[in-house]
Amino acid sequence: MPASIRPGDVLADRYRLVDLLSESGNGRFWRAHDRILERHVALHVIAADDDRAEGLLAAARRSATILDPHILRVLDAERSGQLCYVVNEWGSGTSLDIMLAAGGELSPRRAAWVVGEVAAACARAHAADVPHGRLNPENVLIDTSGAVRVIGWCVDAALHGRPTGRVADDVADLAGLLYAALTGRWAGPSSSAVPPAPTDHGRVLRPRQVRAGIPRDLDTLCDEVLNPQPGCGAMPAEAFRAVLEEFVGDPSGLQESMTSRLVSGAHATVVLPQVPEFTVREAEDLVRGAPAEGPAAAGSEPQGAEAQPEPAASPAPERAEETTGEVTQAELPGFLVAEGESSAPTPPPPFEEPPARPLFAPDPPEGAPVRRARHPHPGRDSQQYWPWDTEAGARTGGAGAGWVDTGWPTGTGPVVEEEVPGRSSFRVAAILLATLVVVVAVTVAFNLGRGRTPLGTVPEDESPSDTASAQATTGPLEVASVTDLDPQGSDGGEYPELTGLVVDGDPSTTWRTSTYKQDFGPGGLKDGVGLVLDLGETREVAEVALRLVGSPTDLELYVVDEPPTGVPAEEGLSPAATVSAGDQEQVSLEEPAEGRYLVVWITSLPAVSDGFRAEVAEVVPRG
């Protein structure tokens, strides 16, 4: 294959390469963009002289004969120059291998529905004797609507150099897909990046031996196909589909629910940048700065690109300048400055420094009063001004024209002094202080009248009764019954006959879990087990006393209104407390919780001599 092929290249003047998705030898799997139909397509490309070229084109022709909504169909196949390529419909979503790696195994019903959709496509294709040839998790796609699509029918096997597939291999791959969806391990005959399933003496372990809680019907189906008995014929895809369909029952809502498992970013749409075509301007226009045919009209727009918004007009200068007809290359008018005139404006003269203000008023001269007399009110002045009376000066003894004697007292009377600043503030403070004293006196009298101390507290001789009542409210809560919680088990529970021993008041008797070879959590058989204490009615739980055997024991406490039937976290419940407990633990909830049921959910087991096991001697909830 030419080494120069890279993103951005165009094949057959139609398909622009966008992303290289995978490689197999010299074969490459691309996401491309169909420039004619304006859509994304999947492109399998190898060199035209490659030994697989003929097989790839033949596989494309066989795949094109199958019309099924689950199969991403073949759109084109051709040799072009040094390349041979096959174009398939593009699907946006998350492949099963990525979904399992990101979010873990599927629930049994979801797993059966997904593989049942693939089996339906196989049944239709096998009826025409056209097997897929490489039906692994990488070729099963959950699209953005939750529907199941199959990638590379016939074509992917040819690209990997595999011979024409067999129907029996497809059915074994179907069982491998179901095994992977249930356990996260791959057991099919085709190659896959999913971790392989564990084996024992050449036999694949049953799904229930890898992960607890798998329904027996699905466990048996996987085991019968992956570990066939000698002399038994291969199960047809239609029979495989029928078993899964019967297990699923009504599939309503399953497709929509699969959208919650899509991996963010795994199906992001690539938007190709648009390359604008710019209009080439003549050199003469660039020099003149104007079109050859004259000034542009007010409503005209530039060609070859979208019109850009005009910038806001800059404010007009304070002093208008003369402009000439000369224009610069940027189409801005040139400015001329008169001779002898500086282009920079003359700076304003500096401001005079303000005179220094004295911090204190100057002392008055000797004998002068400290305060000046207030001027009499104009309305009560001894003289009133009459501007048109020209004889006033003669009548008032030369006091001045326009002034009229009114007979009011003159300004030689007693001086009206100004009020001392701050005197009103002292009055307000005195009033507030008096009010506060009255309020305190009334409060003390009221408290003494009720038999309390002056501060309103209870006398010391009355506090023991209150303490006793407080202790009564935080006493042990009565437990009506205790049951075990083992949602992922298949052997009848975790010693349900011993659950009552955790509330019998005897620390020497215990309830215990089964002994496990692995601890709970990632990689273990279960997420956890637990106990459900029925308090008989809705009660408030503030703390829980625990007596355990062995440490550490990681557990979560839940206070709920309805007993859980599955893993509490998967049912959307939030723990009231999480603790890594020793032999004795007093767990106080951050906030008291109300509910009828107290759930003690064990998430990690202490180690014992033969594995991992937890034992609980006493559980005492307190209100």
Automatic annotation (TrEMBL):
Q: Which residues cross the membrane?
A: 428-448
Which Gene3D superfamilies does the annotation name? Galactose-binding domain-like, Phosphorylase Kinase, domain 1, Transferase(Phosphotransferase) domain 1
Q: Locations of Pro residues compositional bias?
A: 345-367
Bias (Low complexity) ranges: 291-317
- Region (Disordered) location: 291-327, 339-386, 450-506
Q: Which residue range or ranges hold the Protein kinase domain?
A: 15-313
Mark out the compositionally biased spans (Polar residues): 465-474
**Entries under PROSITE patterns matching the protein:** PROTEIN_KINASE_DOM
Q: Which UniProt keywords apply?
A: Membrane, Transmembrane, Transmembrane helix
Q: Which residues form a coiled coil?
A: none
Give any GO molecular function from the UniProt entry: ATP binding
Q: Which CDD domains match?
A: PK_MviN-like
Entry protein name: Protein kinase domain-containing protein
Organism of origin is Nocardioides marinus
